[in-house]
Prior knowledge:
Elements (H helix, E strand, L loop, with lengths): L3 H17 L2 E8 L7 E7 L3 E7 L9 E7 L4 E5 L6 E5 L2 E5 L5 E6 L2 E9 L52 E9 L1 E5 L6 H8 L25 E3 L1
Parallel strand pairs: 5-12
Antiparallel strand pairs: 1-10, 2-9, 2-11, 3-8, 3-10, 4-5, 4-9, 6-7
Amino acid sequence: MKKLFPVALLGACLTAATAVAAADFDFNGNFANDNDKLSFAFSLGSPGTVTLFTSSWLGGGFDPILTLWDGAGNQLAEQDDGDLGGSQLSNGVNFNYGEFDSYLAINLVAGNYLATLTQYDNFSVSTALADGFLRDADPQFTAAFGCSNGRFCEGSLTDSNGDPVEPNRTAAWNLHILNVANAQIASVPEPPTLMLLSLSGLFVLGGRLGKARSAPRADAQAASPVRLA
Length: 229
């Protein structure tokens, strides 16, 4: 017993250290096509509130959508526009985000999760990640919204003050995942081809004037899927 006790004590200390170890992770880059999608794998060693937000809109980036999934690919939440904007501290830096950035603050249990980043209106097809996204078969779908660039377009979108938004956006994105044990870019499962081809014909839009706003920052338990679009 005397020889086993120090080992057991060390194991308990390591477990406790893992449970409290949380950090912030910042990612950035550029899409190549309108329908690009990125997946970010992250984990929690203990229950806590995780914040995920983008900060690229104010710099001219495209209108992002964040979708949160559990480790099995079941949707927990989907967020288009977080709120009217503000700033959030990540790794000691204040990042400003705009009203068309995505913002999620959600209570999660310990475990593994995925966050996917897409461009509006490339929402998930269903609450199963494997089913893919609405625009998977259309790499230049925002051309229908209207802008001289022909991609990363916002068309006739207006902000909360009723002012028109510059229709030409850039391919830039910035994503922040706060208060997690680790986070990294991962791969996204490819959806069934036939389903994508049929869905792509159902979601043809001519503009952005009537875009729906989402509710302010989400706060939901991991067990309950929530759509915030």
